[in-house]
Structures are given as structure tokens and as C-alpha cells.
Amino acid sequence: MTKQDYRATLNLPSTDFAMKANLPQREPKMLERWQEQEVYKLIRKARAGKPKWVLHDGPPYANGRLHLGHAVNKILKDVISKCASLNGYDSPYVPGWDCHGLPIEVNVEKKLGRPRNEDDSAKFRQACRAYAKKWMDIQSEEFQRMGVIGDWDKPYVTMDYHTEGNIIRSLAKIYDNGHMEHGYKPVNWCLQCQSALAEAEVEYQEKVSPGISVGFPLPAEQESEFFNRCAGVTKDSGGISGEGTGEIMFVIWTTTPWTIPANRAVTLHPKLEYSLVQTEKDGKKIRLLMASKLCEAMFEKWGLPNQGVLAKVLGNKLDKFKLHHPYYADRESLVTNADYVSDEEGSGLVHSAPAYGLDDFYLGKRYDLELDNPVNDYGVYAEPTPEIGGWHIFKDEDKLVELLEQSGRLIHKDDYHHQYPHCWRHKTPTIYRATRQWFISMTKEDLIGKVLKETPKVRWTPEWGQNRIEMMMKNRPDWCISRQRHWGVPIPFLLHKETGDPHPRTVELLEDIAKVIDKEGVDGWHKLAIKDILGEEAKDYVKSQHILDVWFDSGTTHYSVLRQRDELEYPATMYLEGSDQHRGWFQSSMLSGTAMDGKAPYKEVLTHGFTVDSEGHKMSKSLGNIIEPSEVINRLGADVLRWWIISSDYTNEMVISQDILNSSGDVYRKLRNTMRFLLANLHDFDPTKDLVEPNKMLSLDQWLIAESLELQEQLKQDFYNYSYPVACRKIHSFCVRELGGFYLDIIKDRQYTIYKDNLARRSAQTAIFKTLEALTRWLMPILTFTAEEIWQHMPGKRSETILTEEWYDGLFSLEDVDSLCNKDEWKQILAVKEQVNRVIEEKRNANIIGAALESEVTLFCDEELMSTLAKLEDELKFFLITSGAKLQPLADATDADATGMNNLKVKVQPITGGKCVRCWHRFSDASDLGQDAKHPELCNRCVSNLKAPGESRKHG
Q1: Residue 470 in contact with residue 145, Cβ under 8 Å?
Q2: pLDDT higher for 94 or 583?
């Protein structure tokens, strides 16, 4: 007798959704489709009238290819914006670019050189604008390739004419509110940039500096008064009688020898005790003053003999004594007092040069010291400076030390290793240097006080962000907003030639100038004649030549962007950047926002960490550990990169390697295969007519939908808390365990073998369909390309794109239906299946059985578990995917295998009997197989499933 082929009678899965993703080839086609659809406009249309949720983009510099940090930042922003949209908010995302400043100017300078006149400057600015535009276009394409959805046709750009005008209006508002000052003050200065730097443009690197101990001689005519102020010492306390012999020198210790030519004071702590010690150097008797606590350590370091203490004195007793400069015989250095002096390091005395340090500067104001500033923009002493004119402060440092040695004032010199400020662009040491600049004062009008009242009102993620920015704010100096460069927004003040004060109508004039810039850009200011603004007054005024710090440009985008675009909102819901921006953009935005409006420009701030390799090293070309985002996308696809970023703990350093990326690729493939299986089992499902009502669904299908609903509620909370790694783990676990390891494993028999229109089959398809509706939305913010691909393959009428969807509302809980088991009982059933699977696998490995359907199992349970499993009746075998299943009391388990559950033991044994060629089940009872003469190889169940209505199922 010829055997029949029953394959055509099975409901085998079928789908065009490819098993192999080919993301590097498939994703660009989806991008093209989105562009043709104008998908960003579709999303805005779908959310029209909904509450706003605005993530304001911190602008990257338009000056080079994107690196992995850019990918982390933009993809995280994209996910958060999409999650807000999923929540039903109107969450427009307007990307931006920072287009002014040194990162661009330096690159243009390499080609054109520095401008020498106004004609050169105009061409230079034009070249800078073109350079920024070129890289902005390149970066835009790269960001879009990552699946970042935004208003790429109309981004905000700081070099846009109207934006430049509004930056000026921001300046006017801050000036009008009384927060600005103009004057000399030490600022971070880069000798390569020849410009002041913002705090955020300074980074600390290891540097070896000469640590020198230098003596400032006390004039002989003051010795008598000096000893009158001192307390006597006894021999018992280490003292010696008399006033000693040799020159008295106040010993300072410094790691910046180049500042000594500008010294104006030697500073002591008013409450510290100082000792005058007798010693000798090079055969010459000298007396040295230092902090008593440091004497022993200093003499040991110097290698000089401590010949006894001559006198002791508190620092406040020596206030306003006058000393000689170490090598300028005609210059005095005043003895001063300050609480910042310490006896933890050095000598306990500090040399003070008011032009080269903030503490020194304010000390100089208090003591009315001269602001001596002989160092020019390039780090060279001006020619009139005695003895050292023309020397470079770093290159000629050894010559300076030699000058001190020749004077006899150098006590000691060694190398000192320390963290020193460097320009973050040039990686070269910076200096503090007094120059005439524009500042936003931290204390005038109590700006810091107002800021510190605003920070607790902001939601900080992680929470430590609040403490971090508050500590930085409390100790920060005034914000120097001046720069001495060419490419940037001007500080367009008109200054009186004699007083240097801004014109009395400055606020009004700034608006007039802003209107010019609105039309012509910053070139409008440079072409503008003073007489065109002031008329007859023009002869008394000059133009300010400074430009604004680029942190001011980006820091005021809350005004120049958020409040200028109708689709946006002020304050922003969120600012999101790397954790370094607590000292950068978060600060400049908070300071300018509070200075302008008295409040923070954002409601929330989220920060992320930086990428490191598997050894914890920062990404660096010199280390050869750079992984370019384009490389990942071209090899694995943007969705794999997105999964790695969002599944990583972004609040800390994010470890990346090729192995880690490959692991993300493996996770992606498992997720994709799950989606493919779900789609394949919906190939003949029409939701308009095949959906099964909740109460008519099989109990297992009801369970799946309830599990999906529970997970969806958890994901809503995880997304709200920005706990994306947790959400990713839950989604992955759901696909692998609840779906792949339990539900889909069980329903294969029902899906494939039951008559196609049978209620039990349509019930499973309903559960799959509803779960897939939810699951695709969960994946949409993260695996954007893949979610869109799934969406296009799903049955039923639907919107043009998954990107316009909100959370799926077609799920229900077990409490909403007549459910066979409650949640806890379903947990028990799932746990039992996992334990049975493990025992079956052990028996297969031992060649006791072949496939699971070639076995029958006996479950030995306690009374409670047996009661739960008994609810599945004779369908228990379908849950365990065996050909037979029986329940027995736990007490009868004499030769069963133990499991990970105390209330369950399992016995697995081969089943004897015939095999149905259609469903592959085996039957020990001959009456279950071959009873139909037309189909002698089929079981009774399969025979019934060849035609409607098919077999009856209740549970699984």
C-alpha cells in the first residue's frame, strides 16, 4: 500500500520575513522609505494636540566623523524620544549643531593661516561657515543611518543668522538683569589658542613641574621688629638662644617658577605657627622661616642641617611686613594673610602673583597689590621685563631657576609630578593669566544662590547628578564669556574710549545689532560702522573686539531655539549628555537660563558614561582600540549597535569590544527568530474575522496575553525610570523563556495539526497576534529598523509606520477572563515544564529515549501541585510535549529523578506503540491509531483534524 503524504494537511509556518537579517543592506532601504514617507511629519501629525515632551539636543561640533560617543549619545536620545511618543506625548526631536569656536577655526586655520586684516577675516569666517556646513551634512547622514528620527530637514544650527541674532538677545537680557562685569581677572588661558578658556574647556593631565623652594629676604632694618613679634623658645623645645646669624628668608614653595617675576606678596595663614630656623647652605649661615609643622620634612628634603629654632610666631603677627623680591632688588613683596594657605604641603608660605591666580587676584584686591602681568598672549615675557624679557615661561623655565640660584635665593629644586590643567583641544598646559574680559558674575545679583535653589527642582538621572553639579557650582569662578578669536558670535558692545564702559543704551543697541545679524549673520556686525549706530556719538566709542565663548552659544539655545520654534517648548523636558557636561552644557544652560529668567531651562537631566575597551581603557587612536560606529553598522547593522548601547549600563563606563558586539548580534538573532516564528504562524490569520474573544480563548493563550500585559506594565515603568538595560533583559527573557521555552514550544502541535479554522488554532493565533502587536511596540524605540520591518509583515490593516504607534491596548489580565489557573499556578506549570525538559534531555543524552515524543512521563507531586496540574486534564502531555503524561502522589516516587523543585519528581521512560505519521505522537493503546481505513497511519486525533471542525481543546 502506497503511503500518503500528509504534509499538505498541516498548517506549516510561512512568512516573507527573512531569517537572515542582512541589516547592513536592509536598513538603508528602510531609511529611503522613511524619507519618501516624510516619516517625521507623519509622527508629528499623529501626535498633534498631545502634551509636549521635548528632549533638547545638546549640539555636537560640526568638525569631523562621528565616533562611538556620538552614537551612544544620539541613540540614547532617540530611544527616549520614541519612548515618550509611545506614551502618547508629542515628542519632537530637533537635532542641533555647534558651528562656532576653535574646533572649527583651528582646522580652517591649518589651510588659510591666521587672518591679518578685516578682508582676511571675512574670508576666514566664510571658510569656517563652509567647513561647518560640510561636516554638519556628513554627520546628519551618519546619525540618520543609526536610525535616529528627527527634523533633519530643519535642524537648529548656531551659525544660522537668526540664531546668531537671538544669541545676542540672550546676552542683552543677561546684561540688563545686571549679571555682567567687565574687567581684569585671571582666567584659564591657552597659549596655543591665544584665548581665554571656559572651565569646561580645561582637562587635567599628568605634568612634571619644577618644585622650587625660594627665599624672600627680610630687610635688615625690620629684623628688630620681627623678633619683637615672635615668641621666645627654650632649649627643651628644640630652640637655641639668641637671634642667630645670616639673612632671614621667608621660604615659599611653588611649582610655577614662571610666576615669580610677577610676585607681589608672600602669604601666611593667620593662625598657623611659623618657626625661624638656623641653618647653613653652601657654607653660608642663613635663617629660614616656614610652618613649624613642616620643618622636619623640609630640612630632610633640602638636605640642610637644622641647627635649631630661633623663634616662633603666628602668621597674623607678621601681616604687612615687607620683604625683598628674590632677584629684583628694587621690588618689595608684602607679607599678607589668607585662610587658604595650608601646612599640609610645601613650606606653609605661598608666593602670590595677583595676575596669575584667582586666590592671588582676590588677595591683591584686598591688599591693594599691583596687578603685574608681564606675560603676553603667547607665553613670552614682554621685552621691557628686566633680565627675562623675551623668555618663554615654559621653554626657558630652567633659565629662570638658574637666575634664582645665582641670586642665592634658591633653597632647593626637584621634579614634582601632579595633575595640571591642559587645553582640551591642544592637550598643552594652560596658565591662569589676568586679562580684560567679560564675565557673568556668580555673586553679583546672587546668581549662584538662585541657581542652587533651582537644582533641587530638576529630576536628575542618575540621582548623584544633582550633588555633582551643585558642588561644581558652589566652587566655580565667574564665567568668562570673552574669547579673542575670529569665528564666533561677537560681544557687540560699544565701549567708551576713555572709561571703557558700555554705552548707556546698550540693551537697546544690542537689539538693533541683533536685527542686523538676523539678516546678515555675524558679518553684519563686522561691516557695521559705529556712526551708523550712534551718529554723532560715534567719535567717543569703539567696538568690542571679543567674541562669545561657544558655551554661551549652546548654553543659550533654550532661548535661541526652544523659544523660537513653535513645535518646541520652554523649559525643555530633558537635557541629555555625557557626564562631563555637568561642568559644561548643563552648567552654561543653567547659569544663562537662571540669569535670564530666574529658572532652570530643563525639568530633567540625564547623563551617560563613556565607552572603554574590555581592559577599561579609554578609546584612543594611539592605543589602537577605536571602534568606529560606521564599522559596526557596516558589519552588523545599526540595530545591533542600538541594542548594545541600550542594553548596557549607560550610567557608568560602557565596555565595548568585538566580542561584546558579537554577543549583541547573537541576542539580536534570537529576538529576530522569535519574531519570525510569530509572523510565520500568522500567515493565514485575518484579525478582522479570526480574532477569538478573550473568554473563548484556550487557557494557555489567555496566560500568554496576561503575561504580555504584565510585562508591558513593567516596561512602562522601566522606560519612565530610563532603566533601559533592565527593560532589554526583560524583553529578551520573555522571548527566550515565556515564548520560546514555553508557549511556542507547546502550541506547535496545536498550530500545525489542528484543522486550520479550529477555535483552538485561531485562539493561539489571536494570542500570537496580540503579543506581537505589543512586542513590536516594545522593540520600536530600541530596534527601530527591525520593528518597522515586522510592522510591514504583520496581518491586518495598520498605520503606515510603527513610529506613530502608542502602547498596545488589546491585552488583558487573567482577572479579566474566566481563567483556568491563576498567576501563581501558571508559574508552577512553567517551572514544572522546565524541570521535565531537563530530565528528558538527560535521558536523551543517555540514549534512554530519542525525541521527547518517544517518551511518556510520570509526575510525582505533592497534593497542591497535583491539584494545579490536574486542571490540564489529558492535555498535560501537550504541555510537556510527550506522548503520555500521568500524575502520581509524591510518596509513590520510588525510582523517579529528583528535580529542582522539592514537591516534584519525574520519571521518564520510552513509550511503546505505533507512531502517527502526521503528528508524530506514539500510542501504546492500539485503539488510538489506525482506526480509519482511509488513513491507517494516522491517530484518531489527526483523522478528526483533516476536516472541520477538528478536535476539541480547552487548555493548550
Answers
A1: no
A2: 94
